DNA sequence: GGAATTTGACCCGC
DNA sequence: GCGGGTCAAATTCC
């Protein structure tokens, strides 16, 4: 089974699951926003599935609905096997999107105080007003670009339709130590401690920017390594779901995951830059309740999370899936 | 003084 | 020519 088909199946399964959730919320006491959120997720799954078919040469006949796309927690545009190539051999030569591994993520529900947090240290190198967009686009590159030659970059732009949505485009892969830290043993770091210390640079103009749309706290975040049980059996374990739920409900967008017992043999970590769609899907699971937490529709039933199906035969150890 | 951000200018693709 | 991506000097903060 190839990568696209697997992703397609995941999306279809998720669509079915969210549809079931929506059915549970059809009673009059359920809030409209909750139902709208679930509808958006269903549309998101459809759009992702159609996009996959589209990429594989199927004429799906329709263009993705903008609202549906923006409702998606993540849309993976990674082109497997594509490598970062710094084309800036000529001064200020413009990089083209082709040839760059690109991943687009839409982080919804990120309040001004809870911005995108992907765990890497980024340095902002530019900001540009985008034609037709109310909010400027911020350009970030890895802090270790010069010291370690890390070529990872990202672009952050707030959605016009929903200012709580941040569209984050990742291009390139982290080759710095941060990436290896992600591959290491998980060290849980409380959110509070991550926001203190030398990463608490606050400026008045940054506060102003907050109001304008680009939150700056996503620029410098020290983010713990993320790992989860390697064995599918452990994935099915309630502790896994509970950990996700607990951390999600805490309102932290970061996939801070506290493992019961960290063991290198039982846990594996995946660098976000290399996770591809799986990371996106995992982020879906983790970030969705968060977005609910930050949204007015707080009555979303988390119990449905327990119904998520994890394929026991899922090839977690198959490197091809993450390429 | 070092590091990070801001911002105007430059460059390239379309 | 326009829009988007990047550079780099200036600025700001610790």
TrEMBL record:
The protein's name in its UniProt record: WRKY domain-containing protein
Alphabetized UniProt keyword annotations: DNA-binding, Nucleus, Transcription, Transcription regulation
Pfam families membership: WRKY
WRKY domain segment(s): 111-179
An MF annotation (GO) of this entry: DNA-binding transcription factor activity
SUPFAM superfamilies from the UniProt entry: WRKY DNA-binding domain
Subcellular location: Nucleus
PROSITE patterns in alphabetical order: WRKY (PS50811)
Keyword Acyltransferase: no
UniProt source species: Hibiscus syriacus
Keyword Protease attached: no
Listed SMART domains: WRKY
Entry GO CC: nucleus
PANTHER family (UniProt xref): WRKY TRANSCRIPTION FACTOR 30-RELATED-RELATED, WRKY TRANSCRIPTION FACTOR 41-RELATED
Superkingdom, taxonomy of origin: Eukaryota
């Amino acid at each position: 089974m190839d990568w696209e088909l697997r992703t397609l199946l995941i999306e279809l399964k998720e669509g079915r699951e969210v549809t079931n959730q929506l059915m549970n919320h059809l009673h009059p006491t359920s809030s409209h926003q909750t139902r709208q959120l679930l509808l958006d997720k269903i549309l998101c799954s459809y759009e992702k599935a159609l996009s996959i078919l589209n990429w594989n040469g199927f004429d799906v006949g329709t263009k993705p609905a903008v609202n549906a796309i923006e409702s998606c927690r993540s849309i993976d545009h990674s082109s497997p096997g594509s490598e970062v190539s710094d084309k800036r051999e000529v001064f200020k030569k413009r990089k083209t999107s082709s040839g760059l591994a690109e991943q687009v993520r839409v982080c919804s529900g990120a309040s001004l105080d809870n911005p995108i947090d992907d765990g890497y240290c980024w340095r902002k190198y530019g900001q540009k007003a985008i034609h037709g967009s109310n909010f400027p686009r911020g350009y970030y590159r890895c802090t270790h670009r010069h010291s370690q030659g890390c070529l990872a970059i990202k672009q952050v732009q707030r959605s016009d339709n929903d200012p709580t949505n941040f569209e984050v485009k990742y291009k390139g892969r982290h080759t710095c130590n941060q990436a290896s830290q992600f591959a290491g043993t998980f060290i849980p770091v409380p959110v509070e401690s991550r926001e203190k210390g030398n990463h608490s640079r606050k400026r008045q103009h940054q506060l102003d920017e907050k109001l304008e749309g680009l939150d700056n706290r996503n620029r410098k975040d020290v983010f713990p390594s993320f790992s989860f049980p390697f064995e599918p059996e452990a994935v099915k374990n309630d502790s896994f779901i509970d950990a996700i739920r607990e951390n999600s409900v805490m309102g932290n967008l970061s996939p801070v995951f506290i493992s019961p017992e960290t063991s290198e043999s039982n846990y594996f970590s995946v660098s976000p830059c290399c996770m591809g769609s799986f990371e996106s899907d995992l982020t879906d699971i983790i970030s969705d309740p968060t977005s609910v937490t930050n949204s007015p529709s707080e009555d979303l039933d988390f119990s449905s999370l327990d119904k998520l199906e994890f394929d026991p035969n899922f090839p977690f150890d198959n490197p091809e899936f993450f390429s």
